[in-house]
Design a protein that fits this description.
The chain has about 240 residues and is of the alpha+beta class. It has one domain (about 1-215): Glutaredoxin (3-Layer(aba) Sandwich), CATH 3.40.30. Helices cover about 50% and strands about 10% of the residues. The protein has helices spanning about 10-25, 55-65, 65-85, 100-110, 115-125, 135-145, 155, 160-175, 195-215; strands spanning about 1-5, 35-40, 180-185, 190. The protein has a 4-stranded mixed beta sheet with strand order 2-1-3-4, sandwiched between helices. The chain is globular and about 75 Å long. The mean pLDDT is about 95.
Amino acid sequence: MKIEIWSDVMCPFCYIGKRNFEMALADFPDKDKIEVEWKSFQLDPTVPEVATESQEDYLVKRKGMSREQVKGMLANVTEMARQAGLEYHLDKSVMVNSQKAHQLIQFAKTKGLGDEVEEVLFRAFFTDGKNVADLETLKELGKEAGLDEKELESAFTDDQFKYKMNQDIQEARSIGVTGVPFFVFDRKYGVSGAQPSEAFLDTLRKSFTEWRKENPEIKLEMSEGQSCRTDGTCD
């Protein structure tokens, strides 16, 4: 059964949601039957590629909140992250455009490493204060996640990965996604936001039960005789 997750690497609730979802998946007995696909979403594509302001300044200007209100909001988010087992240093976050990070994610998905790259990008932005628009930084993060150094350049030079990013964003709009994280279970159930792990687990159980009815497990009664196997042995 497929679960699609729309997220932006600059969304603090997306990293928290990822952790809570992972805790739910760890408690799910049929986790080996679950396929997870990460989807791109840009909360603010107008952010420049070169940092011009802190996250606090950015939120004061964008949300129209007072500085004290923003400080309180960031403190609350940091505490939520701590409860999920994450360490946020939001004062170090480098506010830059996330497009190149999404191109890296799209490339990683073609290598079966989408989840690993999501993880290193989240940690880089929220914990380590790294610049996720810097190509050299992104290449290092890609290597850390297991991607081949010689192939990494294509993530930023091959237009297909930018195209795939935009496809994900367009798809999100078509199904009514206006904020992230957004989890879609088997194209039937949507879960919005960084829900507690119990909420994810409930939706996992419900959606998987329905999926299993439509996709029954094939169990055969076996009668064995002489045969040849794929390793070349015959008996």
